Amino acid sequence: MTRSQSDLGPDVLSQHFTTLDYVIFSTMLLLSAIIGVFYAFQGVPKSHKDFLMAERNLSFLPVAFSLATSFMSALAVLGTPAEVYRFGSIFLLFAFSYAIMVVISAEVFLPVFYRLGLTSVYEVGMHSCHTPTPWQAEIYLARYIITIHFLGGLKAVVWAGVFQYLLMIVGLGLVFARAVIIKGGFGPILHDAYQGGRLNIWDFHPNPLKRHTVWTVVIGGTFTWVGMYATNQSQVQRYFACRSQWDAKCALYLNLVGLWIALIFASLDGLSMYSIYKDCDPLTSGIVSAPDQLMPYFVLDILKDYPGLPGLFVAGTYSTSLSSVSIGINALATVSLEDFIKPYFTLSEEKLSYVAMGISLLFGIVCLSMAALVSVMGALLQAAFSVFESVGGPLLGIYSLGILFPFANSKGAFLGFICGFCVIMWIGIGAQKYPPAPHRTVPLPLSIAGCQRSNDKQEILNFFSFRSYFQEYWYSVSYLYFSTLGALITFIVGTVVSLLTGGLNKEVDHRLLFTKKDFMVNIQYWKDKFVSIVMQLEYLEL
Length: 542
Known about the structure:
Elements: H1 19-40, H2 48-53, H3 60-70, H4 74-87, H5 94-116, H6 122-129, H7 136-183, H8 186-195, H9 214-231, H10 233-240, H11 245-277, H12 294-302, H13 309-341, H14 349-377, H15 379-404, H16 410-433, H17 438-441, H18 469-472, H19 482-500, H20 516-541
Helix pairs in contact: 1-7, 1-13, 3-7, 3-11, 4-11, 5-9, 5-11, 6-15, 7-11, 7-13, 7-14, 8-11, 9-15, 9-19, 10-13, 13-14, 15-16, 15-19, 16-19
């Protein structure tokens, strides 16, 4: 069956959830909270590390799902389909970034972290470089986060992540399945995407100012995601919580499959959205006012005849935020305890466990309090995201410097970080004040010829009569290169300063370095495995 464009209209946005939608949505969140209650009744943690590190006894399967859910936030679930809808499926190239990121995290950083047996990832940095309404929904979200984390600790957060990941995939899958039914198969969707230029995956243009190319996505995306997975406390803490280094590696590699599945489904939803709206773009016609409203509008539009399914999709979207923030609270509690409580106060393990729970509760309340400010943060919130990206690259540069080069010292690490951070903040703030010229960020062609009614709000490109060199080029660098530039500047400056300040004469703790043994351990493992299989086959032949 083919969808008629005359069915589209602003009235879809005015629809509210049915009672069944609310029931399903509430039930899904309640199930997540029950996981925290369940682990709370398993007994009071014997130590703070039991609460924050799940007794270091987690298997790879739940950790893998939890890792995949953490950074697939609601912004990604809603933003990726809109990105594919407007700019094409080049976003799928992040699959390569994910793969490279997992290999680097598992084979370079993880062996060093696990050998040290730490709780906070920031201890590695210190050791390596030292010479000795709109906000009501947020309130509901915060309540569930507090319940899950405060009651159950990391173990509850991880197991809740399994449920939340599956819920997210089910929601994305339902939207795609419904779109296929509407269009009469997947073939028409691919045909429309091809005709509309949405299958533009292989753009090898070397221009770093282009928003997305093969190079910006693969290279820039790799640096961005390695910063998240290799040096971010919320991710690394779950590696530490695995029962063995092998489990942690398996979790990382299985997480890769989870990331691929989420990326594919979100991209398919974007292509489906274009196929259905190719003759009546809701954004250009004024039906929606922002790109991040496209996916919610799409869901309400195509699932309006199926009460309960919109509620299931929204529950899946909420789940990604639930997992991201709850694991973030756990990471904040861990770092606060390790860096600000234990060095200055001598407490028993029992008291430390209660302090850990109290810190988690405190951060949960802060999260709840911030919900009231979300609706008035506006551009400040966007600036906060820029700050997050600006810090991630330089941090990756510091950790890379510390575990790869024995001569790295605190002076080099400090000056390298300052230089990397300042340069990226300079670019980030400049890009906010002087955004890239419209022709650099204009989406692929979108039509409103088939709209029954619209505001006829065609976007007009406003080319500035004069822009300075920095405004035209420096501030227009693709956002995906922010982490890359930050890491490289930190790494290069840190290397030079360390060599100039006596880094070659320092005593080195080789436990802090990535070694040849770390690199060869997997090769030896598979070599032994192959020999074992061959011997078993020879035995069977006899």
